[in-house]
Amino acid sequence: MQHRNILQHRSQEPTMRLTFVGKDPESNPTGSPTVYRTDRGSWVVQGWVVTDQLALAQMDIPDGETCVEIPDRMIQFFKEDRAVDQ
User: What is the pTM of this model?
Assistant: First the structure.
C-alpha cells in the first residue's frame, strides 16, 4: 500500500484529474456516495462523513486525512480495469 503526505503531494504535482466512475444506484439525484478514478492511479470516494466517536477511536487518522462511509453496493465500482480519461 502506498502512503502519501497529502500536503506534500498537492504542492509537488499538477492538479488531479477525476473521471466519474459511478454513483450509488440507490441515492437521490443530488446525493452520494460517488466514486471517481484519478489520473494518478488512485480513487476518490465521496461518502457520508463518519461521526461515530467509537468508530473513529478505532482508527489512526492523521492530519490531512478523513474517512467516509459507503455502502457495500458501491464495491462494484472498484475494478482495476477502469480506464482513466487522459
Answer: 0.70
Q: How far apart are CA 75 and CA 62, in angstroms?
A: 25
Side-chain-side CA neighbours of residue 72 (13 Å) = 0
Q: What is the DSSP string of 23-75?
A: E-TTS-TT---EEEEETTS-EEEE-EEP--HHHHHTS---TT---EE--GGGG
Element (H, E) at 9: helix 6-12
> In angstroms, rounded to a whole number, what is the distance separating the alpha carbons of residues 67 and 51?
9
3-class DSSP state of 3: coil
Reported as a pLDDT band with limits 50, 70 and 90, residue 77 is: confident
